[in-house]
Design brief:
Structural class: alpha/beta
Strand order of the largest sheet: 8-9-7-10-11-6-12
Largest sheet: 7 strands, parallel
Bound molecules: zinc ion
Strand content: 15-25%
Distance between the termini: 45 Å
Helix content: 25-40%
Number of strands: 28
């Protein structure tokens, strides 16, 4: 009899591995096919053979994928921990993070794939072909000091978790590369995580250049199923030395793991937003401890959770305070919008001093980057006669006006229609856009920057709309790098990671909304975004001296902007942590969100209230605090009403213990109280939620 983790949907309540009959003794981590209900499913042997008498009705394993070496004990432990912590089934999570092709291929097909890979790597150039050290740029004094301290903490025995806090342009990547070189030389594998697929090609190129002859594979959702399997197998078999990927790659099977790098560790993309809502950053730290691998968390604006752990001495802190080549950080200029005349044609959105600064850049042949976190032309269309607005019929949100394809599109459910010629309510022909998105900003910039004496400015826009087709982002970025663009307009997409050499001015047009958001993490995200965006300016030391970050604001006295002006992350973090300590918010408490979706808000609320009543009867309830159910900012999406309930505890362990009792009880509740809870379409828990 063996235990097999199978992919059972959470609502079945079958989260734990199930018993099956097996003639042979199978090691844990072996992939098998077993009958499950009326289907045959793929599973992972979780516990090898036990000899207790098996119940007669037990089913037999149908196929063993023996060609595939079993998943390692550490991998199984990582999955078990993640499933427990994020409250999902072990098999559900295990199968979700393995390549989907493994479910389709039989043992012989897998054996073929493996043989092909092994043959290919036998003819590949040997790993001794690393480029000679003479060609490498010498590390800066700061980089050298950081690497020396890293080596010191590694030599001390424990695999350290290290926060590499480096200002933008300080050369964090060079530290990653040199730390990776050391791990590779010691015969280890290296895992590098990045927040977005867009950022993988440029990092992959840098690693490939540095480690010529080493086998590097990527793991992210942009790969074809066949590629994903091939890359996964190469890592699992130990043929690949380096794995580069997005959050999913934290589960890559790597038998000789020695180093995990998490670049831009503060980035919200590391948190999975559906299914098992895991944080790849947090799991990377856990995995490092588990496998005695060094974990390097890099950021110019670390998350406050990470910063706090470094303050407590649980992480080693290494700092890079200087830009490579001695370039200055961009000067921050706050434009007080209260003092600006209301320019008629631009609705006051671009202040005259900013327009003048942009014109200066164009005249000097330098580039500017203007960002606004809203795509489309205008967030809403409006009829001045009857008050009609372009609401989405399926969501509690406005449909966005996209001028280029004349559509009204809902960014929540995707519902799209052609823009009506006249008001659909009263027939008024004069319906007008309110507010602005990147499309409109692009149009207004073209207008404002036109001059009688010079050729028209070259303006490009990068956002989710302009980069929809494959390869379009690369070609647009290429145009910026080639100097064919004067002003680049975009959403926060343009602020991340890209190395624009000729940009000397970065402007945030309207960032104030985050100052007063109900989400306590909004200021942290805004500060990171602005500092990150400003970091795009002056990366070429020749231009660094006159690079500037402009922020248009109605609240120039705000403490966040004051800290930004001094590039003072430490002061900002200290003030935020003080506020959070006072309010009992993370990292001084642990949170979970219980979400419910239903056809009516009442049904969703009723379900959450029933869950709360149930909670009060359970042991450990006194260690947690349940808040009343509330709708999220956009309550209805695609005709589904959403409601959420916050659970808070000063102790992470107490919250975990309570969730482990409460959630199975909620499954029971759903079966018992058919009337109320069947109207709930689905419910799920989000542990350590990022957006509240
Ligand atoms: Zn009207
Ligand atoms: Zn919608």
């Amino acid at each position: 009899m063996v235990q097999v983790a199978v992919e059972a949907p959470t609502h079945t309540g079958l989260g734990a591995p199930l018993d099956y009959l097996s003639d042979r003794s199978l090691p844990a981590g072996t992939l098998v096919r077993v009958p499950f209900g009326k289907r045959e499913v793929t599973g992972v042997v979780w516990q090898g053979r036990r000899d207790d008498p098996a119940p007669a009705e037990l089913k037999r394993i149908t196929e063993t994928l023996a060609a595939l070496p079993p998943l390692g004990a550490a991998w199984c432990e990582l999955v078990a921990f993640a499933a427990g912590y994020y409250q999902r089934g072990i098999g559900e999570l295990a199968l979700a993070v393995l390549p989907p092709e493994l479910r389709k291929l039989d043992d012989r097909q897998i054996a073929n794939r493996i043989a092909k890979l092994q043959k290919a790597s036998a003819v590949a150039p040997s790993a001794t072909a690393d480029s000679p050290a003479a060609e490498l740029p010498p590390p800066s004094a700061e980089q050298e000091a950081a690497l020396a301290r890293l080596a010191e903490s590694e030599a001390a025995g424990d695999a350290p978790t290290v926060l590499l806090h480096g200002v933008t342009g300080s050369g964090k990547t060079e530290v990653y590369l040199r730390a990776a070189a050391r791990a590779l030389d010691a015969g280890k594998q290296v895992l590098v995580l990045v927040p977005e697929i867009n950022l993988t090609p440029q990092l992959e190129a840098r690693f490939a250049q540095r480690f010529a002859g080493r086998r590097i594979v990527a793991q992210h959702s942009g790969l074809t199923p066949a590629q994903r399997l091939r890359h996964w197998l190469a890592a699992h078999l130990g043929l690949a030395d380096l794995v580069l990927g997005t959050r999913l790659a934290v589960f890559a099977s790597m038998p000789r793991l020695g180093l995990i790098v998490v670049d831009e560790e503060h980035d919200p993309s590391y948190k999975q937003q559906e299914g098992a809502r895991y944080s790849a950053r947090d799991l990377a730290v856990y995995r490092g401890k588990l496998e005695r691998a060094t974990v390097l968390l890099g950021s110019a604006t670390p998350s406050l959770e990470t910063w706090q752990r470094a303050n407590e001495g649980r992480y080693v802190r290494l700092g890079l305070a200087q830009r490579i080549g001695g370039g200055a950080l961009p000067a921050v200029r706050l434009v007080d919008m209260n003092a600006m005349p209301k320019a008629k044609n631009a609705g006051g959105v671009l202040s005259p001093p900013l327009v003048a600064a942009l014109q200066e850049r164009i005249a000097r042949g330098e580039q500017s980057l203007v960002f606004l976190n809203r795509r489309g032309y205008a967030p809403v269309l409006h009829c001045g006669e009857c008050g009609w607005k372009s609401a989405c019929p399926h969501c509690s949100a406005w449909r966005v006006f996209h001028k280029l394809d004349r559509s009204l599109r809902c960014h929540h459910c995707g519902f799209s229609e052609r823009v009506p010629r006249a008001c659909p309510e009263c027939g008024n022909l004069d319906i007008s856009p309110i507010g602005r998105g990147t499309e409109r900003l692009e149009e207004q910039l073209a207008d404002l920057l036109r001059s009688e004496t010079a050729p028209p400015p070259r303006i490009a826009r990068i956002d989710a709309d302009s980069t929809r087709t494959k390869g379009s982002l690369e070609s647009q970025l290429g145009a910026v790098h080639a100097g064919d663009v004067d002003v680049l307009v975009g959403t926060q997409m343009v602020t991340k990671g890209h190395d624009f050499r000729r940009v000397t001015l970065v402007a945030a047009v309207n960032p104030d909304a985050s100052l007063f958001s109900s989400d306590f993490r909004a200021p942290e995200r805004l500060f990171a975004l602005l500092l990150q965006a400003g970091g795009r300016a002056g990366r070429d030391a020749a231009h660094a001296a006159r690079s500037e970050l402009w922020v248009q604001t109605w609240h120039p006295q705000h403490a966040l902007y004051a800290a930004l002006k001094r590039h003072d992350f430490e002061a900002f973090a200290a003030s935020q942590l003080e506020e959070r300590a006072g309010a009992g918010l993370p990292p001084y408490s642990s949170l979970a969100l219980l979400r419910a979706d239903a056809r009516t808000p009442e049904a969703a609320r009723e379900f959450l209230q029933a869950a709360a009543e149930l909670a009060a009867t359970l042991p450990g309830a006194d260690a947690v605090m349940l808040y009343p159910p509330v709708p999220p900012p956009v309550a209805r999406v695609a005709d589904v009403e959403r409601m959420q309930m916050l659970i808070e505890s000063p102790s992470r362990a107490a919250l975990q213990r309570f969730l482990a009792i409460w959630l199975p009880a909620i499954h029971g509740l759903r079966r018992d109280r058919a009337a109320a809870s069947q109207r709930v379409l689905r419910w799920a828990v989000d542990v350590d939620p990022l957006a509240i």
